[in-house]
Amino acid sequence: MTRLKENDVEPIATTLVGYNEDLLRMTGCSLRELAAQASGKEIDYLVNRNPLVAVIPMTCGEGIIEGFVESVASIISYLGSRTVITKISDAGGVAEAIQLGAEILFMADDDRFVAINIRTGKVSDNGEATGKGYVAGLERMCQGLNGKNVLLLGAGPVGNSAALALVRYGAQVTVFDVNISASQRLKGAIEELGYNVQVETNLESALTGHQIFVDACPAENVIQLRHISQATRIAAPGIPLGVPELEVKQLLTDRLLHDPLQIGVATMLLEVL
Ligand code: PYL
To answer: Is the pLDDT of residue 247 over 80?
Structure first.
């Protein structure tokens, strides 16, 4: 998993209104509606129960990312939840959150970013939630995915979650990962659930043979200009963005779904309600 940097998260809190307008234009739904669709939860549950959500800084491993907990808290607050960032980090922060009466805890170390509902025991992992959230956005952007060919780049945690969400929407999924055994493992897991996935080992032919992409791999500039047409739609949960930034603005306006945290955090919250 690629570690976010301060300049990935710093702009989030002050650009959520504009971000939501862009999302509405691209997918026809707001961040709240997208998270509700991805999690299968009704948004008014969030409003009615209004649980206190605590975001806890974690100093372990490579430590704090400046602005990370503030960005997570701003997204949760934007969704309408009562939110607090604990003053204390780590174990003390967990104790502080519970003493404050928090029902849901968000925290991230170098390996896992989780949301925990301490009342129900429900846990949501950022990778799994991000995969579901982005596929829900892609489904709205494409006005449905049933019967459509989708190329999934990356068979990691986000890719595995995205693959399951894609086949559940009826998409014909082809997966490419530089690590072929990762693609095979993903194929096996999806087949166990009664669905089919094709494994592609030639990236160039996969890219030229598809218009709908889920870019869930950490490589940069995988999707090149020659792979982009008027029909191209891209959901890109991967950090850093796998499409050349500059050209993207010109060619893919309103057809590229990409953010550092928003869709994943919103889906995590709805998942643990
Ligand atoms: C959750 C993000 C999404 C992509 N990469 C993941 C990442 O950067 N994880 C590390 C998060 C560390 C947070 C730090 C803090 O500020 O509490 N422990």
So the answer is: no
* Token pair for 40: 């299968």
- Give kind and range of the element (H or E) at residue 160: helix 157-168
Going by alpha carbons, the residue nearest to atom 13 of ligand 1 is: 108
Domain around 229: 128-259
**Does the C-beta of 231 come closer than 6 Å to ligand 1?**
no
Pairwise CA distance, residues 219 & 189, whole Å: 24
**Same-domain status, 35 and 73:** yes
pLDDT digits (tens, 9 = 90+) for 50-88: 899 999 999 999 999 999 999 999 999 999 999 999 999
**Is 1 among the domain residues?**
no
236 shares its domain with 120: no
Q: What is the residue whose two structure tokens read 């669905």?
A: 195
Choose among 125, 157, 160, 173: nearest CA to 269.
125
Q: Looking at the 3D structure of the chain, how many domains does it have?
A: 2
In short, whether 106's Cβ falls inside 6 Å of ligand 1 is no
Q: Is 132 found in the same domain as 70?
A: no
